[in-house]
Amino acid sequence: MMKIKLTKIARAKKFHTFLKLCIYFVLICISYVYLEPILRMISMTLMSTKDVIDPSVDWLPKNPSLSNLKVAGTVLDLKKTLVNSIWFSALLACAQTIVSALTGFALSRYNFKFKKLWIIMIILAFIIPVPLLMIPRLMLFISAQNLLGFNLIGTPIPQILMALLGQGVNSTILILIFYNFFNLIPYSLDEAAMIDGASPWQVFVQIGMKLSASTVLVVFLFSFVWNWNETYITGTLVRNSIELLPAKLNMFDSAFKTYAAAGRGNAEFRINEAYKMSATLLSITPLLILYGFVQKRFIQGIENTGITGE
Amino acid sequence: MAKQKKLLTYHQRQNRQGYRFMLPWIVGFVIFTAIPFVATIYLSFTEVRQTVLGFKITFIGLDNYIMAFFENVEFVPAMLSFLGMIIPYTFVILILSFILAYLLNKITFLKGFLRTIYFLPVIIMSGPVMYQLIDSSSEASRIDTYLKFSDIFIVQMVASYSRKFALLLIGIFDQLSIILWFTGIPIILFINGLQKINPNLYEAAQIDSANSWQILWKITIPIIKPLALVVTIFTIVNLGTFSINPVYGLIKTATENTSGGLGIAATYSWIYSFVVLILIGITFLIFHNKEKGRRQDS
Lengths: 310, 298
Fold this sequence. Notes:
The complex is a heterodimer of chains A (about 300) and B (about 300). Chain A has about 300 residues and is an all-alpha fold.
């Protein structure tokens, strides 16, 4: 009897490890889809001009060099654009995080009139195509600019205002993340705080925000990345007065031409895929670094916040 | 004033406090979204010409709509191909991202490493890398795809039943690498939800001798369902705003056309928004009903 039971358990264990291996196999195979473009970029970055033309070079360059990165860095004006992009995105991300937390909290905690209507409006705000809204918005800002007597277009003010009032990039999804998270916090905590005499604002800060540190991090990360990658709205409202990294990347071809004309005039110095790829790599590296840094905390945060409904 | 405040009923207080928190968003919505949108509805009945002095707007009635549906040969096919793309894509993304999130949640070894990779699309998705990805895949000849897959037995089997369905299936497999890039945020949302599930529930089910398949269907999926609604809405909109959406391209080119294009662009995007709204309404109904059923059960 004992023996049969043991073999059964052993078999179940074997099956279990087999299943785990299958999971790993599937996950690792699929992860290649995500890694391939980045690996390709890194390999292209390291290639010299000769390697790019050489058909026998697929992944590993024959004479690796870092000169592509240097050229791309100067063309992109990396020092300036990087700093600009960071503070610009961070500012917008802060504004978006605050307003979406407030809105998410209101939706999750209070029963006010026309709540369903507002939820529908929040979703509506998400699905209206942005290019269309931008024309009336631009007209609005131009007329406001004429009324106030100082420049709005060309400054970050319009976008910060829009982010602060909850109309930034993908604000809706940030609100819904907060809404979903606040719904998971038991309402009895709020009640306990209110019985102890906490004002709604205190409930929001002390219970809502303190428990949702990981959610705040997630929302901030999302917002930062989306604002970083956003070029359409920024291109319409800020234009060229603040040089941002992704916008500069979009104009890489023309910027490279002026650089090449001003710098060295030899025929070999022409634009190729390797320069473009290194520029692209440079523009996403800050995000990758930020991401690698935050990701650990972000997962830990989720695991530490062990609140699961009642 | 102080006396009045104390006399407020519970509902009045709820109302007031709720609106206090909602206020910034509502103000922003009215100024930056509602008014421009209403302006768009008006513009869709007009012809807008950009002149040196500003915009010259003339009312032309339903002409733009008649043009969109009957005269323009591009709009209706673009709309249909958009629908044909978005419905299967959303379905596949929803299921794939749930499966991936579920698997990522199961493992312990290499957990951080794999998650880091799977969340990469979140960062790269809207960036320049994505355009290159789509560029390179659209270069691969489309005509070959059917031939490439037609050797596979299962595809032949499906094709003998319905050729259209087989083409759809092939399309999905062909585009799988692009579809996978859209799963970044859905996976994050699902993992976030999966980790919030109380482990005691699983334990209780195991003690009651439920196997992992039953646990998945009876515990995990019902709890995760409200999140699936968010994921679906996000996916529909995200796919819609992406450059692979033919309607979006039409709207963009019409917007850039300064001599009378704005009115038509307004018409296009009004019809488009209406269709997307209907799609989202349908998903809302699907998930809402099931949620209600769950509440009655418990």
